[in-house]
C-alpha cells in the first residue's frame, strides 16, 4: 500500500506540473482534472506520457489546440493551411509524443513522414559533411517553439509528381534529429497533411491553389532556410538553422 501511495503521489505531482506548465485554465483545466479524478476513483494509474491519447476525443482536441495553436501562428503550416481550417478542426490530427533523452527521432537519410512541433525539451539536429559521413559535422539546437520537417511541408504543398497523392515516396532528411533532454512534441503526419491539402484542392481547384501555395512556400523557404535545412523556429522572428 505504501508503494502504491508513493507511485500515486509521483503521478499527481507530474500531472500537476504538466498542467501548470502548459497554463491550462477554465473549462479545459477542469475537464482534465475531472478525467484524472475519475481514473483515480477507478483505481487506475494516470501518466503524463499517456494522458492525451486516453482523453475523450473532444477534450483531447481541446488540449492539442491549446498546446499547439500558438506555435502554428508564425510558421507557414498556419500561413498556408489556415484557410483549410487546420486550427479549427474538431478532431485535431496532431499526435502527442514523448521521448526520453538521447533518443534518435529522425536519422540523416531517413524518409521524413511527419512535421515535429517541439513543445518542451531540447533536441539537436546535425548533418555530416555533404552527407558523406566524413569531415566536419554541424549541430544546431532546437527547443520549445521550434519545429523540424520543413521539407515535408514543401513537398506536400508543391508536389512534382503524383507520388505525393499515394505517399509512395517521401522526401529524405538531410539531418539527424536527436533529443538532448526528455522531449514533448506533436507530430503532423504526412498522410494527414496530404488529406487536409487534397480536401482544400478539391474545393478551390488544384492549379490555382497550388500555384499560390508554391509561390508562398518558396518565398518563406528562401527567407528562413538554407537549401538543405529541415528545421526552423516558431515565434516572433525566424532563426536560420
From TrEMBL:
GO biological process: monoatomic ion transmembrane transport
The organism of origin for this protein: Quercus lobata
Domain (Cyclic nucleotide-binding): residue spans on this chain: 99-149
Alphabetical list of SUPFAM superfamilies matching this protein: cAMP-binding domain-like
KW Membrane (keyword) present: no
Official protein name in the record: Cyclic nucleotide-binding domain-containing protein
Region feature Disordered, mapped onto this chain: 216-241
CC per GO annotation: membrane
Domain of life: Eukaryota
Alphabetized PROSITE patterns for the sequence: CNMP_BINDING_3
Keywords assigned: Ion channel, Ion transport, Ligand-gated ion channel, Transport
